[in-house]
Input
Amino acid sequence: MEKFTQMTGVAAPLPIINIDTDMIIPKDYLKTIKRTGLAEGLFAEMRLNEDGSEKPEFVLNKAAYRDATILVAGDNFGCGSSREHAPWALLDRGIRCVISTSFADIFYNNCFKNGILPVKVSEEELEQLMDDANRGSNAVLTVDLESQTISGPDGGTISFELDPFKKHCLINGLDDIGLTMEKVDSIDTYEEKLADRPWV
Output
């Protein structure tokens, strides 16, 4: 998993509450277990017309936000089913950070396992960041995980809280497999001890 320490990028505003995982990646795109190619289905029903052409009014279709790497979204982001394809699709599109007032628990935890930083802020802070994100190509935010801060285009800074273990995993690029591999010496030692037990 790619490490997350600090990133600076364009933030796209998505001021919609209760964006569920089916809105993030519709069920038609869940036929694969690959983590690549899912950007095509990201927000497909909001982003695309029935003929596959883009809806010009959708934020990620606008020129200023095509390369957005941060999403500033409404309350309760990622609710609905537990599909891990949702963070996969965001990551495949290049979005490494989602900022909201709250997240569904399963989506929130899936983000950390896939190298995405979900940041919880207050309603007032979200309003400020949404205003920053509405500046088009000037909507540049810097998210610093080590200092747990978000800096806006005018120099203002917002601090956020994060579980220390989740922070450790993101900074070091550790998913579940990576965490297991950190203990490979202990696992080897345990397996060597098992070899002395012929009944095992």
